[in-house]
């Protein structure tokens, strides 16, 4: 069944392009999951639908103080490496290896960079790798490189091999981390050869999964394949309204990830970026959710941190130095630097209902 007609897709994608929002892109296995969800629910408010298709309020619900780039990725891109490298921390850099993802997530926090890239094609990958390696080669303090995107596991095996070899020969990078959602959208990209390559270079993978029903057998098989090859797997995800904003959903997801030895490092407060309102949750409810998670699960969840990514790095509840309940302005402080955050208004908050969020029962 089609949930949205080709004309509606075209209309949304045209609007999305004008607003720097990602167009609809749903890989076939995920489409199948959404179909199963629709058959169970009989309506289109399900969590998996919300991940990849626009809901009615997707472009209409706005809040004050939304910005295109809350974490200021753009201002931390060195000269000549615009949309290619983000260097925010002294010892760590993030290489946007590709602007391609196997599917598009409606809530994506990097919409701005990706949609911007899509309007301005990147130079060929080899050229970008040359530039990044030249930059890293001159900075011995950078010892950790995060490969992100887009999804780094969309790049061809031969290029991935060459990148890893050159990182070892031409830079001081000792730790490579990959952030990937392809394990959900297109797990078949992780062949035995890819797993073995990643294991050989002692890569860490942070799996991005937002709902327990996204963990299907092909993904489980791939995680096991990676681990057998020596890859260390972790996870991280945002808490999103109407997708996973209930303690039972978070518990189910954490239990599945724990069974896969891929415990989350961070749970993210959604960035207040443009057109993010349909996924945001007020801070008080987020804090309550995470407290409830800690209180109702084993102590193995207590290490999972709820964080807000910010222009000065990740900040947490204990970093709040002021909170104006009237205006919703919250100030976090890290290493003497303030981060001003405008909370999502409680009156716009419609929490996800458990029967919809966990429709398999
Ligand atoms: S896969 Fe990641 S980068 Fe791509 S759209 Fe989804 S969240 Fe954004």
TrEMBL record:
It holds the Pfam family Radical_SAM. Its cofactor is pyridoxal 5'-phosphate; [4Fe-4S] cluster. InterPro entries: Aldolase_TIM, Lys_aminomutase/Glu_NH3_mut, rSAM, rSAM_sf. Residues 87-299 form the Radical SAM core domain. Keywords: 4Fe-4S, Iron, Iron-sulfur, Isomerase, Metal-binding, Pyridoxal phosphate, S-adenosyl-L-methionine. SUPFAM superfamilies: Radical SAM enzymes. PROSITE patterns: RADICAL_SAM. GO terms for molecular function: 4 iron, 4 sulfur cluster binding; isomerase activity; metal ion binding. Belongs to the radical SAM superfamily. KamA family. This is Radical SAM protein. It comes from Candidatus Methylumidiphilus alinenensis. The lineage of its organism: Bacteria, Pseudomonadati, Pseudomonadota, Gammaproteobacteria, Methylococcales.
């Amino acid at each position: 069944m089609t949930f949205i007609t080709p004309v509606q897709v075209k209309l949304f994608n045209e609007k999305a392009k004008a607003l720097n929002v990602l167009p609809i892109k749903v890989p076939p296995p995920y489409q199948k999951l959404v179909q199963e969800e629709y058959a169970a629910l009989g309506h289109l408010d399900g969590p998996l639908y919300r991940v990849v298709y626009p809901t009615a309020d997707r472009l209409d619900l706005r809040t004050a103080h939304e910005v295109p780039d809350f974490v200021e990725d753009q201002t931390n891109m060195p000269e000549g490496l615009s949309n290619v490298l983000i260097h925010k921390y002294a010892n760590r850099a993030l290489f946007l290896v590709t602007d391609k993802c196997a599917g598009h997530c409606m809530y994506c926090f990097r919409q701005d960079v990706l949609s911007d890239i899509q309007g301005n094609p990147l130079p060929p990958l080899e050229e970008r790798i040359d530039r990044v390696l030249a930059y890293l080669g001159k900075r011995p303090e950078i010892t950790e490189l995060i490969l992100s995107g887009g999804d780094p596991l969309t790049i061809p095996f031969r290029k991935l091999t060459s990148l890893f070899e050159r990182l070892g020969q031409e830079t001081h990078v000792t730790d490579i981390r990959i952030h990937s959602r392809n394990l959900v959208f297109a797990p078949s990209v992780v062949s035995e050869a890819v797993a073995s390559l990643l294991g050989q270079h002692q890569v860490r993978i942070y799996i991005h999964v937002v709902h327990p029903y996204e963990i299907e057998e092909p993904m489980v098989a791939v995680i096991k394949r990676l681990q057998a090859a020596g890859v260390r797997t972790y996870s991280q995800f945002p808490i999103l309204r109407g997708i996973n904003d209930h303690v039972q959903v978070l518990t189910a997801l954490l239990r599945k990830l724990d069974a896969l030895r891929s415990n989350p490092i961070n749970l993210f407060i959604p960035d207040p970026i443009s057109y993010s309102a349909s996924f945001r949750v007020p801070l008080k409810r987020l804090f309550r959710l995470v407290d409830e998670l800690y209180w109702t699960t084993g102590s193995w969840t207590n290490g999972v941190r709820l964080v807000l990514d910010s222009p000065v790095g990740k900040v947490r509840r204990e970093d709040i130095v002021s909170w104006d309940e009237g205006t919703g302005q919250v100030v976090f402080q890290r290493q003497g630097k303030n981060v001003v955050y405008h909370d999502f208004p409680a009156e716009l908050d419609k929490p996800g209902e458990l029967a919809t969020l966990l429709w398999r029962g």
